[in-house]
Design brief:
alpha+beta, 8 helices, 303 residues, six-stranded mixed sheet, single chain, 13% strand
Length: 303
Amino acid sequence: MKDKFKNRIYIAYLLFLFRNIIIFSSGHSGYTTRIMILSNLVICVALSLIIALKTKKINIYWVTMIIGISIFGMKYSGFNDMNKFWNIVIMYVYIIFSAFQLILLSITRYLKQKNLKRLIKVILCFFSCYFFSEFYNQHYCEPKSIVYSTEISNIKNEKEMLEIIHKMPMVKRIYYKENKKEIIYPKSDYFPFNFGFIPDNENKNIIMISLSTYINYESMDRLAEKVNGYLILMNKSNEKIYLYMVTDKSTDFILSEYELGNKNIKKIHKLKDLRETDNMLELFLYLPASLIKGESDADGKDE
């Protein structure tokens, strides 16, 4: 009976660890999500202490994989809103206590079995989760749903606005052009997009946001609403500005295009297939993934 009880504790621990991934993948970044992450983390730490002291047999590799995926996957989480102080604090707390659990269980396993080779495998397993997370988020998963909820009441200048946008989830870099003044944030001499695909681009005021990975159209619309709100705070609502959503991976495709002006948002264009790409490596990796998922062809009929 004792062995069954200990085994149930271990299974419960794995489920709560996996729940962390689900919470981070929800797309939300508000107060409720923060409470859910902290409460789930407390339960995980408590269960890890019980397992370390009482349980003799666990599969440390499953624990390592789930913790590794949750940590490296935070890069693509809607909770990763760096404009929110408490989100930053909670992410650091989560990483520290997740590392504590992993170190605690790894060391207790090592002390009981004296197997250095297994300890090295655990370390390699953890860092391999980075590559799994990158592949999954870049080439396999569906476009993410992100609830952009950053509330800003005052913006001093363009640089501060770009910094705020850059700290929002999934935003990798931004190109800003107004009256032929160009800014790339973070600072760089090059923005990876072929501007020749934008008609009359030299005479347009442009904000171009390059995303870390694909987000769905509803999320892009929410992001456009936030950008429009920031322009209003800067008293630029009367100027016509074109907002483009792109990714670094597809330098010839615009995911969504908006016209911002007079406090209004007009959606001009959206890409029919968010996974359309001009990158042969991206195409090579995506096609097998789409076949695995059993996606439909362009006519809406299963292949």
